[in-house]
Amino acid sequence: MNVQSLTQILVGITWVAVVIAFVVVVMRASRNQPTHGSGRIIGGLILLALVFTTMSSGLVFINPEERGVVISAIAPKGYREQALEPGLKFIVPFAETVVRYPISRQTYTMSIATSEGAIKGDDSIAARTADGQEILVDASVIYQIDPAKVVQVHIQWQDRYMNDLVRPQARGIIRDVVSQFGVEEVVSSKRDEMVNELNTRMAKKLEENGFILVDFVLRNITFSPEYAASVEQKQIAEQQAQQARFVVETKRQEAEQARQIAQGQADAVVIKAKADAEARIIQAEAEAKSLALISNALKENPDLLNYQYINKLSPNLQVMLLPANSPFLLPFPGQITTPTPIPTPVTQPQP
Fold first, then answer.
1. Which of 124, 147, 246, 309 could form a disulfide linkage to 112, CB 3.0–4.6 angstroms apart?
2. TM spans, by residue (predicted)?
3. Phi–psi pair at 217, nearest 5 degrees
């Protein structure tokens, strides 16, 4: 509780005491009871109440989040040129009054949502882009009174600055800035540039009127139903095109994979054929070398063939019985000659 509040309480108490004392005196007088000294008591209470009232009128406590504009009947301009700073201040009783202004941050919101904006209902800003598309913008202006310009705000706007300055300036600036950008730029490529332009112009306009812009928040952008439908169709078309590209790429990869598999199989067949050919060549060369060695061996030892021939007849054959009048069963290879016929004895006829 500050001193100003305490003095106001004392003022109220003393005036109540004056009234009570006056009522008591009247009641005693109506009953013919003595009222000696009652006048002095009432007079003293009235004097004390006047003193407290005067003190209360001359003391002003300014909170830290406030500044006070002094309206003065004795100042040449009708007001003090300097606003009252926070703390307990003195003014001329009954000749000066104080109008308080908040210097804390304030927010003014304009929204399409019926329960979010400063004004109930749809309070969004209808703006038209450079390419003729209508959009609805939700925005919030966060601002505060410049402590050094409180007197200026009082003179120019008083307590009307929210509805008469912040709201119309914000709506007008949003419409002007949006009209410089196309609808695609507003929602994507140049949105940051647009927000920066809004901040710059709003800050300048508020500064001229004694305010400080803390932030300009572009909350939401809503399109007309027709444009929203066209955007949706465009997105669907882009998704379908993307899906088609994905299918084409999948097919291309499958075809490439099949080609690589076929190429691999063809390469494998070629490699196998080359390997078989080389194997046959090696085998033929080995056989040729083997035959050459055998041929050389036979030239040097002709009987080797006969020896091999006999061994091939039967590995376990040790004795062979032949008829007395029969030649060898088979001739030796390489020694085959025209067989000499065995002469048959001529039988003389009997006389």
1. 124
2. 6-29, 41-62
3. -100, 115
Residue 262 above 60 pLDDT?
yes
CA–CA dist 242, 239 (Å, integer): 5
Cβ contacts of residue 329 below 8 Å, gap of 6+?
320, 322
Radius of gyration of the chain (CA): 62
Is pLDDT at 39 greater than 60 in this prediction?
Answer: yes
Assigned token pair, 87: 């703390």
- Residue 29 scores a pLDDT above 80: no
User: Where are the domains positioned within the chain?
Assistant: 3-102, 107-223
pLDDT tens digits, one per residue of 133-154: 888 899 999 999 999 999 999 9
Q: Per-residue pLDDT for 83 more than 60?
A: yes
3-state secondary structure 79-94: ECCCCECCEEEECCCC
Contact call for residues 33 and 62 (beta carbons, < 8 A): no
The pLDDT assigned to 312 comes to 66
Q: 151 near 82, Cβ under 8 Å? A: yes
Q: Average pLDDT in the 154-179 region?
A: 93
Q: Which residues on adjacent β-strands are paired with residue 218? A: 139
* Exposure letters 290-310 (e unless 16+ CB within 10 A, then b): eeeeeeeeeeeeeeebeeeee
CATH of the domain spanning 107-223 = 3.30.479.30
Mean pLDDT computed over every residue of the chain: 80
Angle of CA points 64, 70, 73, to nearest 5°: 165
